[in-house]
Each structure stands twice: as structure tokens, then as C-alpha cells.
Amino acid sequence: MNSNRILNIALAVYVGAIFLFVFAPILFSVVFSFNSQRFPTIPLGSFSTEWYVKILNDPDIWQAALNSLIVSSSTAVIATILGFCTAYSDFRYNFRFKGPYLALILLPPTIPLIIMALAMLAWLSKLGMSGQLWSIVLAHSVLTAPFAMAIIRLRLNQMDPELESASWNLGGSEWSTMRYVIIPFCKPAIISGLCLAAAVSFDEFAVSWFVSGLNKTLPVIILEIVQGNIDPQVNAIGTFVFLISMTLVILAQIFFVYRQMKSTPT
Amino acid sequence: MTKPLVVLENVQKLFDDFIAVKAIDLEIYEGEFLAIMGPSGCGKTTTLRMLAGLEEPTMGEIRMNDQVMNKVKPHERDTPLVWQSLALFPFLTVIENVEFGLKMRGINKLERKRRALEWLARLDILDFSDRDISTLSGGQKQRVALARSLVLEPKILLLDEPLSALDAHLVIRMQAVLVQLQRELGITFVYVTHSQSEAFAMADRVVIMGNGEIAQVGSPKDIYRSPQNQFVAEFVGRNNILSGTVSNLRKSGALIKTISGTFSVDLKTDSLTKGQEASFVISADLVHLSRSNPEAENSVHCKLISEEFIGSMVTLFLEDISNHEFKVQMQERELSKFDLNPGSDIWLSWSSKSAHLLTVN
Amino acid sequence: MPTKKIREIDIYAMTWRLPIIIWQLLFFVGPVVFMIAMSFFLIKNYRMTEAFEFVNWSKMFSKSYFWDSYFYTVTIASISTILAMGLAFPASFALAFKASEKMRRWAIFLLIIPFFTSYLVRTFSWFVILSENGVVNALLGYIGLGPYTMLNTNFGTLVGYMTLTLPLVVILQTITMANIDKTLIEAARNLGCKPLSTIWRVIIPLSKTGLIVAAIFCFILSFGDFVAPFYLGGSQEPTLPILILDTTKSGQQWPRAAVVAIVMMVTLFAVAFTGIALAYRKKVSR
Asked: What pLDDT, on the 0 to 100 scale, is given for residue B263?
């Protein structure tokens, strides 16, 4: 075996190790959610679904799950609308202060969540809008809009720049063109944006924790459990949470890549 | 003289820092195939876009049927355009693309479908009506683009270099299709292209544009045989351009003294004065070759520099003593009668009737 | 694109342009500006009152625990960045140059998933895995090693930071390196450059911008995270984010927390600014 082949094998093993490190905690959570023992370690106990039974019977957790669902779907819709408007404005128009305009939507992810959490808490409290589910929605929409915007903007890049003009030329007004040309073209990106925004919102804990008050979302429940003793329920909740957000992210990627490739002319 | 369908009067288009179109006047008539031709950057596409309403003239008026169109929005006009990139909607099928304009006009579903199918059949792509655009070939997409515009039954169809993306053999075929369509429908085609052969093959009238201005308007033959200025002479066909001063005026023409010699040019009007600067043009295919001095009125002694073969035609590039370039165009079989190599001596001659005076700029 | 001289208000354009401006002003600019203002507020009788005093600032800056925390945070975030960039590099290198396009796409597809899924639950998993009677120590016990204390140490904190940043860093590094002009590498080899040297002399300089961006993101994420140092590091030494957490949740001293937050933002801005200047600096020709 020459040195090149050894190197390639070593690199492959290394990549595997990185992936193992990244996915280990997820796998861990899933595996041990079915473990009968209270404390997750090896040797494994017996297969058991008691933790799932426990969480499915807990009304607080159901309420939190429902809250998470409401928050993430509302966030997804608002974020995608905002993202679409901004992406289209960037695509179609050139205007003064376009730089600051784009910075306005793209800055939030660069600010640490804990700082956003504090700022949101203070501001929404001042406006008397804190402690509600929709307080979280307002905050999350700011955090997730950049993702939706980036996805849709990339999609618009793939559009023949004359497509809009072609529609006008055939008698479509600007509004009709938006309805019959731009939006249909962006459909995969819109769905992708919705999924991704929902995923990010679903998992977000810092801002939710600060702002939600008594209306807790699932990540907040997890935070509270984790602050107490080791409770294997977290693994069960965690597995659910992983399943849902992983599905959303996978869907987002599928729509972003595959569907777009299908409907883009070569 | 029939009344024009479209009139452009003193139309100018200024972009941020450069003037794309510099005050042009043009009349477009019903039922004609008009080509606008010129090198890239000459303003031809801008002019077409102004007709479609995609750009607004900075100055001047565009009138259709006596109505001033400057402020009319693109979707309120009836000037469908066949785009260079075709701009077909990728998320619609072939028939949905063709129906699009009809849908925008509020025509009901059944009627739309009927008309679309009619045009798809007419353009020979009926079999593709439910196909995805991405599965079509270049030529088929071309036809969809045409159908999409023509189904609206406009009085005027705009075309922006629609054949530029096609393979050479398809181009010839599509040219025939376009010409036939135009004759059958009797509508006006305004066709923008940078290709001389396309414009000359298809159009009734050709507009030559350069640097944002109209250099000449006329039938293909007129432009080819009688270029009016240096720009057109250099851009169209293969021409020899000679410049000098008028040394003598006669009944039938003038003698013009150039660095290559003094030559006689037949004049149709007596608009020249002695000592005036003048340029004239001899088309390369009107120049005769001879091995020995033909003792003719207009002749030049040259050396052969190079030859260029395109099919059965050959263009010879020659230089005289004063290093002025001459071009001669002839059939290859005629050339083979001479035994010429680079560096060979040869005499060129032409009749004073073949020389054509250029407008003094 | 048509150029329209807009003299009348273009309702169509404004419909699309305005929403984000209004929304962000209300729910992004507003909160941040208010937070900055809040750092000058006072707490009187357990209530926050609006004022313009510097007492929060002077109090914070005089406390040694603040500066200890500041330097600790900068240090641990820097270590995290260097560690993440270093650990990611061989993997990114392999994905960019040794893997096929298809494998690379799959790798990125897979790595995006954990990046967007519950950081909190993953941290909790590590907490359990790394604890005294957790999986790692149990495994080590089989071969006669340990048990090691991994939690409540800097090691724990760094494991947490890696969990947070590695996926993103690998993705960014891979995309950057996969997009450089490969013919330049071939040219270097052709001129006699040894394989290992090409990494240092060709690949890294060509990837400079992307790598710096990856490092900046990594630093921002590590610097601003409270979960890793709190749960896995045991907040032995509190980082600035933990300071904010404590000051807000338990202390109800929002103005003080705001001071910490502003210091953090200024630091991050300075780091990002320097980084981007470095990334886009053009070589001065002599």
C-alpha cells in the first residue's frame, strides 16, 4: 500500500470520526430514550417505552408541544413573507441605502441569542407584549427571516432576468406577474424557507425562555428539566424534537435542491 | 404612400452615463418585414425595447396609429416580443406557456385552449403541448416562443435576435419559417439582429444602426449596392473605400485624386465642386483581375496578400504601392484561371459606373 | 431591468420594500436600541426606571469579576475557534479534494441537519455521556482507565462549543475549498511544489476569505453561547453570556445585563471588522 492510499484511508476515518462526534449525541438520545434505567450509561438496561409513556401522559408537555407548534408555524409564515418581500425587492430594484436595507434583515443571526433574548425581553415588556406566545413569534420571525430571505433570493438568481418582462409584454400587469410568474417560480424556495424557519423556531430556547413567561414551548420545558436532576424523560422529548426538526430540515433541503433542479431550464 | 403603423420621431434614450439612442426618426409600415441591424452596442435592442415599452424614451415620441405611446405601460401594449433567451416559463407546460397572454386578457379556459392548440398545430409542435419546457430542443422552444406571441394576433411582432442561440443549420430553416409566417399573416415583423446575412435574407427593408444613430434605411439591395456613408460601406458587404479630392469635373462624372491614383466616378447628381473632399465605394465583386496592365480608366497595380475561402466564394486581399488595402470577391473557379500566390503581381480595374459616391459626412 | 423614473409613489414597489423595514424597526432595531438605552437606567425600589446615568457602567467596570469573565470569555472563545478550525480542516480538506461531488453534497446535506436541530438536547446528551458514571468513563473503565472528570471543566466547555460550531465550520471550510481554482494547485505541483507545501502555499491563501469568515462565525457562536459553559463547564468561571443570564434571571438587574451585552457586541463587532478587513485586504505591490 503506498502512502497515498494510507493517507486517503486515514482521511476517510477522520471524516467518519467527525461525523460520529456530531451525530453521537443525537443517536445517544434516541437509543437511551428506550432504555429502562434511570441513568443512561452502559451496560444498557432493558428495552422500555416507559419514558415515552410518561411524557405522553404529561399535560404540561402536551401543552408545550402545542405551543411550539403554534409558534413555529406562525413564525415560519411571517418569516417567509418578510423574506420573500425583501428578496424580491433586492432582486428587482436598485435604490439608495440598499446596503443598510439588506443589513437590516441579515444582521440578527450575527448577534448572540442571549443578547437578543435580553433585548427582546426588555423591549416587549416595555410595550406590554411580553409573556405571550406571540411575543415569541415576534422575536423568532426576526431571527428566522434571514434564512427564508437567503433561500428565496438564491432561487430568484436562477430566474431568467427577462421572465418578468416577458410576462408584462404578454399583457400581465405587475401584480398579475407576481401572482402567475414570480410566486409559482419561487414555490420550492418558499416551501424550503417555511420548513427551515419552522425548524429554527422549533428548537430555539434562549429567547423563548426569556420571553415566554408561563407559556412555555418545548425547548423551555427541556431547559427546566435539564436544570433539575438527570431525568431520562429528556431523551424521549429530545427524540421527538429531533425527529420533527430533522424532518423539517431535510424537507427544506429537498425542496431547495431537488425540486429546483427539476423546474429550472438548462 | 400608405400611412405608417408606427412612427418614431426624434426618439432619444439616455442611460445614466451614456446615450444609447441619439435621436432617431423611423417609420414602420403595416405588413412589412423590417430588420434593424448593427454591431453590438449600436442601440438596436434599446430601440426594440422602447417599442415594447420596456424602456421609456428620454426624448421624442413613439406613436402607434397616431397614439403617443411613451407613457403606455408594457402590459397595456399589443407588441409581443420574441426574446433572445426565449424567456419561456419553466414552471408551465408548452400549452400553458402559449395560453399565458390569453389568460392575462381574461379569455376563458376553453377558448384559450382552442386558440393555443390552433397555433401549436400551425407551428408543427402540437405533439409537445403537454410537455415540460426543459425537455424541448432549441428549435422546438423557438416555435413555442413564436406561438406564445402570435396567438395574441398582434399587428406587430418584435423579435430580438431570436435565432442567435440556434445551431447553424437550424438557423436557415427557421429563417424560412419566419419569412413564410410573416407573408401568410401579413403582420409587421420588427427583427433585430447583428447578422448581415439574416437581415438581408429575410427583410423587406433594413435599418442599419451604428453608435445610436440610423446610418441608412432601404431595401437589402439598395443598401448593398448604394451605401450612403462610410459606416454602412464598411459594415455591409465587402467594399473598397477610396478617399481623396475632386481634381476635375466632367459631364458624366468626376475625377477624384487619391493616394492610389486618380479615378473616375459616374455621378447621378452634380453636387460636387472642384477641390472638394470625397469618398467613393467599389463593391469587391465588381472589381476585375488581370495579369497585365489593362490600360483602363480605373486601374491599380497590386500585390496579393492573402485569400479567404467561404464555400465557393473567395475574397482576395491586396495592397497597392501606397499600402492601401483592396478587396476582390469572385467565384473560386474563376480565380483558378489565374495562377496566384501571395506576393504575386496583379492588376485591378473597374468601370466608373461601378463606383458609388459616398455622402460627405 | 426596466429603468423607471419614479416620480409618483410606486405602490407596487413599496408593498414589497416596506414590510421588512417596518417589522425590523419595531422588533429588531427597537429592542437593540432600547437595550443600549437601558444600560443607563436605574433600579429604584426593585423597579427599573428610565434615566441617563452611568452608574451601571462604572459599577460593572469596577468589578474584577467582570473583567475576569471578559478575558476568560475571549480566551475560551479564541481557543474554541482555533480548535474547531483545526479539527475541521482535515475533514474539510478530505471532502473538498478527495470526495466526489456527490459525496460532498451528501456530507453537507447531513451536516446541515445537526446544525439546525436542538443544540440543547445534544448538550444534555454530552452531559450524560461525559459524567462520572457516563458512557465514556464506563468504556474507559473496561480498559482500566479513569474515571476522568470531564464535566465542570474547560474540557467540558470546549466539547460543548465543538458540538455547536463544528458542523458549520466544516460546511463553510468545505464549500470554500471546493470552489478554489484547482488548476492553480496543478500549476504549483508542476513547478515543483511538494504536496504538503501546496496546502500551505496555495490552498490556504486561495481559501483565505472563506476560512476567515468561518473563523469569525465560530468565534461569534462560541463567544455568545451560554449553554456549553453553563451545563458542561459547570460555570466554574462564568463567561459573559452566563453573567447576562445570572444578572437577568436571578438578579433582575437588567441594566447591568445590558452593559455586559453591549460590551459583548462591541467586542464581536471589532473582531468581525478586523477579520473582514484581513480577509479582503489586497496585497500591496512593491
From this structure: 87
pLDDT score recorded for residue B360: 61
Decide if C3 and B15 are in contact by the 8 Å CB cutoff: yes
Contact A118, C261 (CB under 8 A): yes
Any chains having at least 3 CB pairs less than 8 A from chain A are B, C
Please enumerate in sequence order all residues whose Cβ is within 8 A of that of B198, keeping only pairs 6 or more positions apart, or say none: B35, B163, B171, B175, B191
Could you tell me if C4 lies within 8 Å of chain B, comparing CB atoms?
yes
Task: Give the pLDDT confidence score for residue A112 in this predicted structure.
Answer: 92
Cell 481634381 belongs to residue: B247
Residue C235 CB contacts under 8 Å (≥ 6 apart), including other chains: C229, C242
pLDDT tens-digit map of C225-276:
999 999 898 877 889 999 998 888 877 788 999 999 999 999 999 999 998 8
Give whole-number Cα distances, C193 to A4, C189, C190, C199, C200, in Å. 17, 5, 7, 10, 10
Integer-rounded Cα radius of gyration of chain A: 23
Which helix (H) or strand (E) covers residue B150, if one does?
helix B138-150
Mutate to test the interface with A, among C12, C27, C231 (most CBs of A within 10 A): C27
Rounded distance between C-alpha atoms, residue A111 and residue A91, angstroms: 26
Q: Is the CB of residue B13 less than 8 Å from the CB of residue B46?
A: yes
Spatial CA neighbour of C228 closest among C147, C88, C137, C125:
C125
User: Touching check for A114 and chain C: CB below 8 Å?
Assistant: yes
Q: Which of A170, A182, A191 to mutate to test the interface with B (most CBs of B within 10 A)?
A: A170
User: Which tens digit of pLDDT belongs to each residue from B199-210?
Assistant: 999 999 999 999
Percent of chain A scored above 70 by pLDDT?
96
Chain C contact for A210, CB < 8 A? yes
- Please tell me the predicted confidence (pLDDT) of residue B1: 58
Distance of CA A257 to the CA centre of its chain: 17
Structural contact between residues B279 and B254, judged by C-beta atoms closer than 8 angstroms: no
Rounded Cα distance, B117 and C15, in Å: 38
Residue A130 and residue A210 in contact, taking contact as beta carbons nearer than 8 Å: no
Contacts C86 to A, Cβ<8 Å: none
Residue C6 has pLDDT above 60, yes or no: no
| Residues ≥6 apart with Cβ < 8 Å to C100 | none
User: Each residue of B268-278: pLDDT tens digit?
Assistant: 666 777 888 88
Tell me if ipTM is over 0.90: no
